[in-house]
Design goal:
This protein is an alpha/beta fold. Helices cover 35% and strands 18% of the residues. The relative contact order is 0.20. The structure holds guanosine-5'-triphosphate (GTP). Guanosine-5'-triphosphate (GTP) is lined by residues 15, 17-23, 51, 110, 155-156, 158-159, 186-188. It holds the Pfam family cobW.
C-alpha cells in the first residue's frame, strides 16, 4: 500500500499511562468538528482495542465510526512497533481511501510507543500530556517528551491542592526546560481546552 498520509495533517498525542490523553481527545475532537474540520482518530494500545472502543462510543454522532481506529502495537520487545510508524501510516491511508476530505488525524499513544507518536514521519505536530498527580518535579526532570514536544499539556490541575503541587513551580520549571508553549488543563471541566485547540490549529493547519 502506498503511504499518502502527507495529504492530511497529523497530530501525535503522547504521555504516561493515565495522564489524560483519551480525556483530552474526548474534549478536543467535538470542538474541532464544531469548527468544521473532518477528523480521524487512532488509538495505539499494546494488546487491546479498549481506547478505540471507548472513543468510538464517545464520538458517536460526532465522528463516523470508521474514522476511529485502534492500532494494536504489541507488547513484547521484539514485536512491539517501537519507533516504526508504518502501522499507523497504513491506518491513515485506509482513512483517506474512504474519506479523502479528511483535514486532521489525531494519533494517541503512550509508554513504549512514544517514539512512534513523535516520529516526524507520522506526526506533523506533537502534544505531550503529563498529569499534575505525577508530581511537581516532572517538568524539571527534563524527559524527552516534556522537552521536545511542540505543546506540553499539564493536565489534572484540579488535583493540585490534593497532591501538594504548586502549579506556579510546574509552570516555571516547564518554561525553564523548553522553548515551546505549555498549557495547564482540567479535562473534567474543559478548562483551557480552547487554548490547546488554538495551538493545534495554529501549529498544524495554518503553519
Ligand atoms: N481529576 C481529573 N481527572 C482526570 C482529568 N483528565 C483525566 N482524568 C481522569 O484520569 C483517568 C485517566 O484518564 P485517561 O484520559 O484515560 O488517560 P490516558 O492517558 O488516556 O490513559 P491510557 O490510555 O491508559 O494511557 C480517568 O479516570 C480520567 O477520568 C482531569 O483533568 N482531572
Amino acid at each position: 500500500m502506498s503511504l499518502t498520509h502527507r495529504d492530511v495533517a497529523t497530530v501525535g498525542i503522547g504521555g504516561p499511562v493515565g495522564s489524560g490523553k483519551t480525556s483530552l481527545l474526548t474534549a478536543l475532537v467535538p470542538e474541532l468538528r464544531e469548527q468544521g474540520l473532518d477528523v480521524g482518530v487512532i488509538a495505539n494500545d499494546i494488546l487491546t482495542q479498549e481506547d478505540a472502543d471507548v472513543l468510538r462510543e464517545r464520538f458517536a454522532g460526532v465522528v463516523p465510526e470508521d474514522l476511529v481506529a485502534g492500532v494494536e502495537t504489541g507488547a513484547c520487545p521484539h514485536t512491539g512497533i517501537r519507533e516504526d510508524p508504518s502501522m499507523n501510516l497504513q491506518q491513515i491511508d485506509s482513512f483517506l481511501a474512504e474519506h479523502p476530505e479528511l483535514d486532521l488525524v489525531l494519533v494517541e499513544s503512550g509508554g513504549d510507543n512514544l517514539a512512534a507518536t513523535f516520529n516526524p514521519e507520522l506526526a506533523d505536530y506533537s502534544l505531550y500530556v503529563i498529569s499534575v498527580a505525577e508530581g511537581e518535579d516532572i517538568p524539571r526532570k527534563r524527559g524527552p517528551g516534556v522537552v521536545d514536544c511542540d505543546l506540553l499539556v499539564v493536565n489534572k490541575t484540579d488535583l493540585a491542592p490534593h497532591v501538594g503541587v504548586d502549579l506556579n513551580v510546574m509552570e516555571r520549571d516547564a518554561n525553564g526546560v523548553r522553548d515551546g508553549p505549555v498549557v495547564f488543563t482540567n479535562c473534567k471541566d474543559e478548562t483551557n481546552i480552547d487554548e490547546v485547540l488554538t495551538h493545534v490549529r495554529d501549529g498544524v493547519l495554518f503553519a
